[in-house]
Amino acid sequence: MSLNNRLKEHRARLGVNQQELGSMVHVSRQTISLIERGDYSPSVTLALKLAGVFGVKVEDIFEYTDDGKDEANE
Amino acid sequence: MNEEKRINEIKKEDYKRMPLFFIAMTVFAIGGSFFGYFLASKHELFEMSVDFFKENGKLFSLCFAAAMYVFGTITAVISIVKYIKVKKLWGTEKEREDNWDLIEDKVADLFGTVGRSIIICFFLHGASIYNLFPNLRSVKTETGFIAEIYEIGFFLSLIGVVIFTALFFIIQRKSLEMEKLLNPEKNGSIFDFSFKKKWVSGFDEAEKKQVGIAAYKAYNIVNMTCTIMTVLLIIIGMFADITIVPLLCVAVIWIVQLTSFTIACAKVTGKFC
After folding, report:
1. Does any CB of chain B come closer than 8 Å to the CB of residue A28?
2. Mean pLDDT of B50-62
3. Cβ of B206 and A30 within 8 Å?
4. Does A74 touch chain B (CB under 8 A)?
């Protein structure tokens, strides 16, 4: 599976750095960095929190595409 | 019916993998036999090595103590240089955003270097005072001068291990300070006995996943290492007098690792809570 995201764009629009965004949603800066790079798929709770901070829908930040790969094996 | 279907599926999967598994096992068994035969053919060399080590314990003691000073000094300097570089990278607030991931990697690397150095220093200290009192007794009957040098070696080793442990502890504390600067949500003092508990409580979902994957990989690597060490020690023990202590140590490490991993897994799933 592939989860593309536009987190960096939304973060830039809000004018905050990774550390500040992490504090807003109570996760580490590293987690924000991992999500932005597409190396980590956030939980539903975290995705909703991020959407809440940006004032958009979850689908506006994350886009799911089924590429036939299993996430557990990635 | 569904269960029967599932059992058939499981069997089918097993049968599919079985031939390759048995071929691999046969190859390992044949390879192991040849390796064992090779080691056995060199048993005199092994016996000589063990005897040489025992007979020259006094000399090795001083060598290990000296090795600890050389190794400790080099790794301490490397660690300090790495720390200074990290501090430099941390630099101004403007540069931080771009370098943050790199700094995190470098701090993790520093923790690894310091951890490995402490283990090796402990080993070298242990090796330098190995068989100390029997060696001292045998030396004293020969000449007092060598005994004195040997006693100096012992104290040098003891002083060295204290100095290097303290030095690496300070570097570790500084690295932790850096880690806390990088991650303000992380808590806990290195002087606190419940430090690890407090540190883990600051983990978010991604960090917990990372730790889980890393722990499982480490678990598999330690299992593999223990298997190899056990086989090697069994073979070596057949023709060299190494006592059962090394084999016992590996068995203890293996059992502790398996048991602690199983208990930790059960705790995570809430069975022991």
Report:
1. yes
2. 73
3. yes
4. no
Partners of B97 on chain A (C-beta within 8 Å) are 17-18
Read off the pLDDT band of B5 (50, 70, 90).
confident
Q: Is the ipTM of this complex over 0.85?
A: no
Q: How far apart are CA B46 and CA B29, in angstroms?
A: 23
How close does chain A come to B212, measured CA to CA in Å? 13
- Containing structural domain, residue A16: 2-55
Indicate the DSSP class of residue A71: G
CATH number, domain containing residue A39: 1.10.260.40
Contact state of B206 with A23 under an 8 Å Cβ cutoff: no
Count CB pairs under 8 A between chains A and B. Answer: 40
Partner-chain contact B100 A29, CB within 8 Å? yes
Task: List the single residue in B104, B205, B207 with the smallest CB-CB distance to A43.
Answer: B205
Give the tens place of pLDDT for each residue, A8-18: 999 999 999 89
Q: Which residues of B touch A35 (CB under 8 A)?
A: 206
Q: What is the C-alpha to C-alpha distance for residues B221 and A17, in angstroms, rounded to an integer?
A: 38
In a domain, A61, yes or no: no
Pairwise CA distance, residues B202 & A27, whole Å = 9
Q: Is the pLDDT of residue B45 over 90?
A: no
Closest residue in A to B210 (Cα) is: A40
Residue A46's contacts (CB-CB under 8 Å, 6 or more residues apart) are A25, A27, A31, B205
| C-alpha–C-alpha distance, residues B214 and B109, integer Å | 15
| Residue at A65 is within a domain | no
Please give the pLDDT value at position B132. 66
In a domain, A38, yes or no: yes
Please report whether residue A73 resides in a domain. no
Distance between CA atoms of B195 and B199, rounded to whole angstroms? 6
The number of distinct structural domains making up chain A is: 1
pLDDT tens digits along B205-233? 999 999 999 999 999 999 999 999 998 89
